[in-house]
Specification:
binds magnesium ion, 24 helices, alpha/beta, OB fold (Dihydrolipoamide Acetyltransferase, E2P), binds adenosine-5'-diphosphate, 22 strands, single chain, 7-stranded mixed beta sheet
Length: 711
């Protein structure tokens, strides 16, 4: 019954106000339900008892059954403290020697000494449960749990819960936790109603909730545990998908969009003048967008496509549909450099169409700005390209119909929301969000559960694979020689330094030192080296960037400002310094800067002496695959979805308690399909059989913020 679940834990037997306060401050547990939803993060198999002689150090938790041989109280320096009239404040530790028929070992306590000393009387037998460690040459166990032999763990598998030092010193040990949860189960289960309708349980072959809760905490065996785990994961993902899809349903029924029934002349002229044929994936995505635009509903589409997959062209053609229907379009990019590049490209494509394009960034002068403002208001400018300068209040469109946002993760949610209000006649413009940070499917389904997602999963023809290698410092000379060979062939080279915190002095020193080193190795007049970083003025940055883009510099030394979008087809070598400090998706983005021309390209990952296991795995993965989606999946597995680059600011709609987006993709897809199927038959969940579902979705955690405005 709901009321039991909602009861304050304080009233649970064995808790009381003090422990209740601890549970709240340490674990955020307030109600009995919260306690029952704290699932074990692992289980200990208490069915097996090890022999002392067979213990392997640094094993996971083990259990031995042994007799106490001696118990000694030792001082700070290991000196014995006399046992008659013991002054416990002089005692540093309790050292107990225990033995079974195969051997003996030491068990040590630093806390609760007095009590343990009284309990561990030589000659008596106990079960010791803990983690074996090596001290000196011998194996010992520090602070094991101690049980009387007939009073060991209840089930075969015992749940282990997240805990903190404060909880333990406050008396809420693992064992106490097990007891409290047992008491909570006894109280709640008899009257607990299932959160899922009976027919769902039947159709999906799930176990009932009371059984699942009992088994997740106190499994009788591994099979029962797996059934319980599956049921709880399914429920979690299913309810989440149900809530997201329901919102999507409601939005698509209610969101009026600007109708754009035709493709228009400008689109056709541009299309027919393209210097290349669109890839199948580009064509498919453009078709999806066309359908959206003429539907009469507002488009909210996320376009994912790996670096170099040709998203710009999709943006341009979409913008031209808006223009062809008498509306304006804007394309917002995160950096000045990228905006300029877009502007240059788009102008080229649009030349035969006669559509007027303008560029608006932070460095656009006052006079030019006035002219642009006027052109937007009188409608003579068809497409505006720019940085976030284009969402300022002073920028007013005559008839904005479509907004494209490139590299969406660089913009904050509120910046994106401001575009929303700039639509023609107060109607929100169609929104196309583009990202080159591939988001694993499972994450996209959840993160953008109510957006439509298009994927460009095909590269333009002729792209050669980028040969990726990792070099240690000992190969630096070989690296320079290789760079010289490439430059001799007429190619250009990127050298990127990590700048994790833009203000960090050390990083700038490294960059500066690296630059000086390169200038020394690649001297004028044979070589020209440009440098770009965040502390330069915009003019300086643009000047250097342009020098490289135009081929006047052979090498561009930079921080990650070049990460996004910049296209220099003649650059065929990407050197990443201290590559171990970059995240996987950043490395992938950087590598995407090369391999754009027809020449063989290279990505050299320079690594330091000390590389953590995790970092090494990232570098290895980079050398193994160029598939952004594979890398994104791996990244998610390694870091957990909460930390995925590009997703922090949008965050997950709800915190998952038991399911994992990285590992439970199959359950997620299944749950989503099933949720879709249910909503198909009962979009409002108003049928009596679905009452439990409707009730669940009314809970706070599903009252997610308005995702329709996520873009
Ligand atoms: P991204 O998806 O990273 O934004 P771009 O739109 O910058 O990729 O495209 C990368 C490069 O590929 C550009 O030089 C562009 O002109 C080229 N390109 C795009 N589509 C095609 C195509 N269908 N065939 C050949 N080249 C293409
Ligand atoms: Mg791009």
């Amino acid at each position: 019954m709901a009321e039991m679940m909602d009861m304050n834990v304080q009233y649970l037997s064995g808790v009381g106000p003090r422990r209740a306060a601890l549970l709240k401050s340490e674990l955020g547990i307030e109600t009995v339900g919260d306690l029952l939803h704290l699932y074990p993060f692992r289980y200990i198999d208490r069915s097996s008892v090890q022999k002392i002689a067979e213990i392997i150090p640094d094993q996971a938790y083990i259990q031995i059954r042994a007799t106490v041989r001696s118990a000694r109280l030792l001082g700070k320096k290991g000196e014995p403290v006399t046992t008659d009239n013991v002054k416990f404040n002089l005692v540093n530790r309790l050292s107990v020697i225990v033995s079974d028929e195969t051997g003996e070992m030491e068990v040590v306590f630093f806390k609760g000494i007095k009590w343990m000393y009284g309990r561990l009387i030589p000659g008596s037998e106990f079960i010791f449960f803990g983690k074996p460690t090596v001290f000196g040459n011998r194996i010992n166990m520090v602070h094991p749990e101690v049980d009387a032999p007939d009073n060991a763990g209840t089930g075969i598998l015992t749940g282990v819960y997240n805990s903190t030092e404060k909880l333990k010193t406050g008396g809420i040990t693992g064992k106490v936790m097990n007891k409290l949860i047992g008491a909570a189960l006894d109280m709640v289960l008899p009257t607990l109603k299932d959160t899922l309708p009976e027919y769902v349980i039947q159709e999906k072959g799930l176990v009932p909730l009371p059984y699942a809760l009992r088994q997740i905490h106190f499994p009788t065996d591994r099979y029962a545990l797996s059934k319980a785990t599956y049921r709880l994961k399914f429920e979690e993902l299913f309810l989440l998908q149900l809530s997201l899809l329901k919102q999507k349903f409601i939005r698509s029924r209610s969101s009026v969009g600007i109708p754009m029934p035709k493709v228009g002349e400008a689109f056709n002229i541009c299309y027919n003048a393209l210097p290349y044929e669109l890839t199948g994936a580009q064509k498919r995505v453009i078709k999806e967008i066309r359908e959206d635009l003429r539907s009469g509903r507002q488009m909210n589409r996320l376009l994912q496509g790996d670096v170099g997959s040709g998203k710009t062209m999709v943006a341009v053609l979409s913008a031209l549909i808006a223009v062809g229907n008498g509306y304006q379009a804007c394309i917002m990019a995160p950096t000045e450099v990228l905006s300029q590049q877009h502007f240059a490209n788009v102008s080229k494509y649009l030349a035969p169409t006669g559509v007027k394009v303008a560029l608006l960034t932070g460095s656009t002068g006052a006079a030019a700005r006035r002219e642009i403002h006027a052109g937007l208001e009188d409608g003579s400018i068809g497409i505006l390209i720019g940085t976030h300068a284009l969402i300022e209040d002073t920028v007013r469109f005559r008839r904005l119909g479509l907004a494209v946002i490139d590299e969406q993760h660089r913009f904050g949610v509120d910046q994106r929301a401001r575009l929303w209000s700039k639509g023609a006649d107060g109607t929100a413009p169609h929104i196309l969000v583009m990202t080159a940070t591939p988001i694993p499917r499972t994450l996209a389904m959840t993160l953008y559960g109510d957006l439509d997602v298009s994927v460009i999963d095909e590269m333009p023809p002729g792209r050669k694979p980028v040969v990726t290698r990792q070099f240690g410092e000992n190969k630096r000379y070989a690296l320079y020689r290789f760079m010289k060979d490439q430059i001799a062939l007429g190619r250009q080279v990127f050298v990127v330094y990590p700048l994790i915190f833009e203000s960090e002095k050390v990083d700038y020193q490294n960059l500066q030192k690296g630059y000086e080193d390169i200038v020394e190795q690649f001297p004028l007049p044979d070589y020209k080296v440009a440098i770009v970083h965040g502390q330069q003025s915009n003019e300086e940055k643009n000047f250097n960037m342009n020098a490289f883009a135009a081929g006047r510099a052979n090498i561009l030394v930079s921080t990650t400002v070049i990460e996004v979008g910049v296209d220099v087809p003649n650059a065929s070598v990407m050197v990443i310094e201290s590559a171990e400090r970059f995240g996987l998706s950043q490395l992938h983005q950087l590598r995407g800067r090369v391999g754009r021309g027809s020449e063989a390209s290279y990505c050299i990952l320079m690594k330091g002496v000390k590389v953590s296991k995790e970092s090494q795995k990232r570098l290895d993965l980079m050398c193994e695959t160029e598939d952004g989606f594979v890398l994104a999946e791996e990244d998610m597995k390694m870091r957990g979805p909460g930390d995925m680059e590009g997703t922090q600011q949008s965050g997950l709609p709800i915190t998952l308690n038991i399911a994992s987006l990285a590992h439970d993709g199959q359950i997620l897809s299944d749950a989503r399909l099933y949720a879709d199927h249910i909503l198909d038959r009962d979009p409002d969940l108003s049928a009596p059989v679905n009452a439990p579902l409707a009730a669940e979705l009314r809970k706070d955690k599903y009252l997610v913020r308005d995702y329709s405005k996520i873009s």
